[in-house]
Amino acid sequence: MAIAATCGLATPAQAGPLDGKSYIVEISSSQSSSGYAEYLLPPLLAELARSRMRPAKGPGADVVVNIVTESDVGQWMGSGEDREWIHTVQITIGISPESYVIPLDGTPVFGIRARLLTPNPDREDELNCLTRLAARTAIRKYQPEGIFATDGSSCLRR
């Protein structure tokens, strides 16, 4: 390693707990039937492809990756001329052992929830960014259990 460092060569990144693990992606039937999965899957699959995980071949996988989406009807925020109708959009990317039965509400064993306050809850670019942010963070910070939040404000577009 000392030779590699002195020659300016990059040293290999430290192995993570998900490196080499196989995965499958689970989408809820409502996400699939509504067409929402068409917006959720591309950014998720892009981040999974960049990871050191691999798609499962055949039945069975080490982990199941799922997406839980939440949004509200919005509320007024601010005052005076700065008053604006703001929506909260949340994307949770979950990573669970394949043996875990994901409940109907989608709660994973481990997940990262990216949260964004936005005046427009239907922006595809913000949804894409939130999904990628949550997926990238979940892969990088994976641990056996817990749901953790990350700030999605970097995904806000005006």
Secondary-structure content class: alpha/beta
CATH topology of the domain at 15-69 and 90-113 and 124-152: Double Stranded RNA Binding Domain
What global shape is seen? elongated
Beta strand count: 7
Please work out how many helical segments DSSP would assign.
Answer: 4
Describe the overall structure.
The chain has helices spanning 2-6, 29-34, 37-50, 124-140, and strands at residues 22-26, 54-55, 63-71, 75-77, 84-97, 110-118, 146-151. It is α/β, with parallel strands linked by helices and 158 residues long. The chain has a domain at 15-69 and 90-113 and 124-152: Double Stranded RNA Binding Domain (2-Layer Sandwich). Strands 1, 2, 3, 4, 5, 6 and 7 form a seven-stranded mixed β-sheet that branches. Mean pLDDT is 90; it is low at 1-11.
Entry summary:
This protein has helices at 2-6, 29-34, 37-50, 124-140, and strands at residues 22-26, 54-55, 63-71, 75-77, 84-97, 110-118, 146-151. The protein is of the alpha/beta class. The radius of gyration is 18 Å and the shape is elongated.
Please describe the structure with a list of short key phrases separated by commas or semicolons:
single chain, 4 helices, alpha/beta, Double Stranded RNA Binding Domain, 158 residues
